[in-house]
């Protein structure tokens, strides 16, 4: 018998009296998760429950008996603590922000940040790894800085899997259900109190969506949910798992995120003017924005594209094409054939939006290409990744030199207060004041780190390492219990690791390119390093492999097998189920953070930054962010940034370099103690690391850069195009059509410059160009010299452009443009000239096929 139709559902919530109501308010704003006083408030409520709920205050308040809660009112200490935290939250929400100070007046800016995953806290498991943590940290800093931003994502019933290992060390996956009613979620409702609902109809699928809100400080995050009773079973599964299911499921999730996300915001009466796609997953949002503008203003696809593109920002995170979603054209036919009718595009025109070569029938539909074509600003996540991305996507801008592609970089960061230990935070307040909190990107503030006495910084290091060892032992006991170990075996967990020993951490996704086993290549040598009687070393590993990644799981198995060997049993530990809690303990407790990606596969990496904020030192291949962070005295580099063709050879060379570094530099430095037991030089390096890295690698700096270089310029351009009922957008679209029609007549007839003699450094080289424009006016084009020093491959590096002014009308549509190139460095120079369209108001316009070089 099916009882489901008899179920009358209702929700029970704790009923707190007025005095205790602030508890609820704090529990429902994830601000608490980066406020140490709020965390200690909840821990104080019930220490055991705090751990067993995975630090979930909402669930905890639900479990605690009403009488227990009410009796708190008699606890004066608790009530004072509660009041203090409540006031802190009120102050936080009301304080004048960086954004108000910097951009006073731009009150119409509204940013929506779309991401497939958000890592905000371990109690809200809707993230898998780096991408999600970055998104979570982005929202937190956006809140701290007061950006007018909202987040959009999906609310997964099961989130990402939880990991445990069997006896052999083979990864097992479990998918616990998220109980939405015990999470800090609020269902969005309409004015009649009914759940707000949006509908999506794509191909054979037709379903409804609910919207839940998570409050992240001042920033709301809206999460979409298809698990509604009225939806078909297969549609209810769309929000079942993060990165679960097949390619078709992935496409449905991306339709939901991008298109459903825009519709959800409209239902909430939020009309963003800047939409940020965190990775290509969200790129369908650009189509929906176009569709809405077309519908509302009755304009063409091209016109709508001009406005909306200005307001789209795209961040790519992958240095390899295989890492990006590609969908077969049949799948687009299946789901989009009806949707694209509203665009007035042919099937091929539509499919071309996702192709590098739009006419290539065989090319699949790539979400990154779609995003790059429909976003006005695009960036990679470190300088090196920016370079790699430009090289990857250069075919999209065939006429531009690689270094000039409109694909820049904004290096990732981490949310300081989320990742820094409470001890370190208090130490900094004592010696730096609170300026590092208010103005975290100010180098001068962080220079004051040198004022902290070595002994105190070292003591903090010792304490957090001890906490990590404690935590690792506890976890190990739980792990042993879970696989049915005997009491005696479980007791041995107390013997592993040593709180005084140099501790290396390695935790990340077990993808093969990250080379989690590089350190295990020569076990004899490793044994001599770890078990040196005077100068021992220990390593803690953690990380998940994707459920389908057998190779990644094999790496985990190897590590676990090695850790079971008698000689390594006390020195190597694998902590299961890497999540934000494990990460926090690790980054706060380790002395050294090891990172061994195969360059340039690590787009940025962020865990090493978390370590830097806790005075740990990085030991890493020069890849991702570390190329920018490493300065010689603030950690160690494995190799010099070489790229090898032979992977096996590379592993050999780099593991050798790693062992050498450990033996000759890292270990001796750590154990070189003064009479007081303090390793002065090591502490000096800790300070150099914090001084150089903390002001740079935070999401505060990162979000400020997004505001400065992406959001605000995007918004201004969008506003210009949008003004007066899209006057400029319509005009631009018509202008482009006319100009592009005349473009085939544009020619460079000749270039004149006195190249015979060498040019003295510091002097200028006069250049003039004769350009045939036909019926195009000289005001409608930009003529430029692109020049610089040639590298040994004959390419201009670090080139500069100088615009050449119209100097003479030669008649017959022929014009002379002239200017001077400033030769500031010695060396072999070269220059080229180019002509491209320039809109009188909007400036140069680059579109593939409309630039000529001479
Ligand atoms: C920070 C973090 C990551 C990302 O770290 P990478 O250095 O990019 O590998 C992944 N997972 C968790 C749980 C984290 O906290």
UniProtKB/TrEMBL annotation:
Any one GO molecular function term: 1,4-alpha-oligoglucan phosphorylase activity
Catalytic activity: [(1->4)-alpha-D-glucosyl](n) + phosphate = [(1->4)-alpha-D-glucosyl](n-1) + alpha-D-glucose 1-phosphate
Entries under InterPro entries matching the protein: Agluc_phsphrylas, Glyco_trans_35, Glycogen/Maltodextrin_Phosph, Glycogen_phosphorylase_DUF3417
Family matches, as Gene3D superfamilies: Glycogen Phosphorylase B
CDD domains, per database record: GT35_Glycogen_Phosphorylase-like
Boundaries of every DUF3417 domain copy: 16-124
Pfam families: DUF3417, Phosphorylase
Keywords recorded for this protein, A-Z: Allosteric enzyme, Glycosyltransferase, Transferase
Enzyme category, top tier: transferase
Keyword flag Glycosyltransferase: yes
EC number: 2.4.1.1
Family: Belongs to the glycogen phosphorylase family.
Protein name (database record): Glycogen phosphorylase
Organism field: Trichlorobacter ammonificans
Gene: glgP
């Amino acid at each position: 018998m099916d009882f489901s139709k008899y179920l009358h559902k209702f929700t029970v919530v704790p009923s707190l009296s007025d005095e205790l109501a602030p508890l609820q308010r704090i529990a429902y704003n994830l601000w608490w998760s980066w406020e140490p006083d709020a965390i200690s408030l909840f821990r104080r409520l019930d220490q055991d429950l705090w751990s067993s709920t995975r630090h979930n205050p909402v669930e905890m308040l639900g479990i605690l008996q009403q009488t227990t809660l009410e009796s708190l009112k008699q606890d004066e200490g608790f009530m004072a603590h509660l009041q203090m935290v409540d006031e802190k939250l009120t102050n936080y929400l009301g304080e004048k922000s960086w954004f108000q100070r910097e951009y006073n007046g731009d009150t119409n800016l509204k940013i929506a940040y779309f991401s497939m995953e958000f890592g905000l806290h371990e109690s809200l498991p809707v993230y898998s790894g780096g991408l999600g943590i970055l998104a979570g940290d982005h929202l937190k800093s956006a809140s701290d800085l007061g950006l007018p931003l909202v987040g959009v994502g999906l609310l997964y019933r099961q989130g990402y899997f939880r990991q445990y290992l069997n006896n052999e060390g083979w990864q097992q996956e479990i998918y616990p259900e998220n109980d939405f009613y015990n999470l800090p979620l609020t269902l969005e409702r309409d004015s009649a109190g009914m759940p707000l609902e949006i509908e999506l109809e794509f191909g054979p699928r037709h379903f409804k969506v609910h919207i839940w809100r998570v409050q992240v400080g001042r920033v709301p995050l809206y999460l979409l949910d298809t698990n509604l009773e009225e939806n078909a079973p297969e549609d209810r599964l769309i929000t079942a798992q993060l990165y679960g299911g097949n390619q078709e499921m992935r496409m449905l999730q991306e339709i939901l995120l991008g298109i459903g996300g825009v519709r959800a915001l409209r239902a909430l009466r939020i009309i963003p003017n800047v939409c940020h796609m965190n990775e290509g997953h969200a790129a369908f949002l650009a189509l929906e924005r176009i569709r809405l503008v077309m519908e509302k203003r009755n304009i063409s696809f091209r016109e709508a594209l001009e406005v909306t593109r200005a307001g789209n920002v795209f961040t790519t995170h992958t240095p390899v094409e295989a890492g990006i979603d590609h969908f077969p054209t049949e799948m687009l036919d299946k789901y989009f054939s009806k949707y694209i009718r509203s665009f007035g595009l042919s099937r091929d025109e539509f499919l071309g939006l996702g192709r590098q070569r739009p006419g290539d029938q065989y090319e699949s539909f790539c979400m990154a290409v779609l995003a790059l074509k429909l976003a006005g600003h695009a960036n990679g996540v470190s300088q090196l990744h920016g370079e790699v991305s430009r090289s990857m996507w250069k075919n999209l801008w065939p006429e531009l030199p690689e270094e000039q592609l409109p694909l820049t970089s904004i290096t990732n960061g981490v949310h300081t207060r989320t990742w820094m230990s409470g001890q370190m935070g208090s130490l900094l307040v004592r010696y730096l004041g609170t300026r590092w909190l208010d103005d975290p990107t100010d180098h001068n503030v962080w220079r004051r780190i040198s004022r902290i006495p070595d002994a105190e910084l070292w003591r903090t290091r010792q304490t957090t390492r001890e906490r990590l060892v404690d935590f690792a032992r506890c976890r190990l006991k739980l792990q042993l219990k879970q696989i049915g170990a005997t009491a005696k075996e479980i007791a041995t967990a107390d013997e592993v690791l040593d709180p005084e020993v140099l501790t290396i951490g390695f935790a990340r996704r077990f993808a093969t390119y990250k080379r989690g086993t590089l350190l295990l290549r020569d076990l004899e040598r490793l044994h001599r390093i770890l078990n040196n009687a005077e100068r021992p070393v220990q390593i803690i590993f953690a990380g998940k492999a994707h459920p389908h990644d057998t190779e990644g799981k094999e790496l985990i198995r190897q590590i676990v097998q090695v850790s079971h060997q008698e000689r390594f049993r006390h020195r190597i530990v694998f902590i299961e189920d890497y999540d934000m809690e494990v990460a926090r303990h690790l980054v706060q407790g380790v002395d050294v953070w090891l990172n061994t990606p195969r360059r340039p596969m690590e787009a940025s990496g962020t865990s090493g930054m978390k370590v830097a904020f806790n005075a740990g030192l990085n030991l890493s291949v020069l890849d991702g962010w570390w190329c920018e962070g490493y300065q010689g005295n603030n950690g160690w580099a494995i190799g010099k940034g070489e790229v090898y063709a032979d992977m096996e050879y590379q592993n050999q060379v780099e593991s050798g370099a790693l062992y050498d570094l450990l033996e000759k530099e890292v270990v001796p430095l750590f154990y070189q103690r003064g009479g007081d037991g303090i390793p002065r030089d090591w502490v000096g390096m800790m300070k150099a690391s914090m001084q150089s890295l903390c002001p740079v690698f935070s999401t505060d700096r990162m979000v400020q850069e997004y505001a400065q270089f992406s959001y605000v310029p995007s918004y201004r351009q969008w506003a210009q195009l949008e003004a007066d009922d899209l006057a400029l957008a319509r005009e631009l679209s018509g202008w482009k059509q006319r100009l592009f029609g005349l473009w085939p007549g544009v020619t460079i007839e000749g270039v004149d410059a006195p190249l015979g003699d060498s040019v003295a450094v510091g002097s200028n080289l006069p250049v003039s160009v004769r350009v045939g424009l036909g019926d195009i006016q000289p005001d409608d084009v930009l003529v430029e010299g692109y020049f610089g020093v040639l590298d040994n491959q004959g390419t201009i590096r670090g080139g500069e452009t100088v615009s050449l002014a119209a100097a003479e009308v030669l008649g017959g549509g022929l014009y002379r443009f002239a200017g001077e190139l400033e030769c500031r460095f010695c060396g072999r120079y070269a220059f080229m000239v180019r002509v491209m369209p320039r809109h009188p108001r909007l400036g140069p316009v680059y579109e593939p096929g409309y630039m000529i070089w001479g």
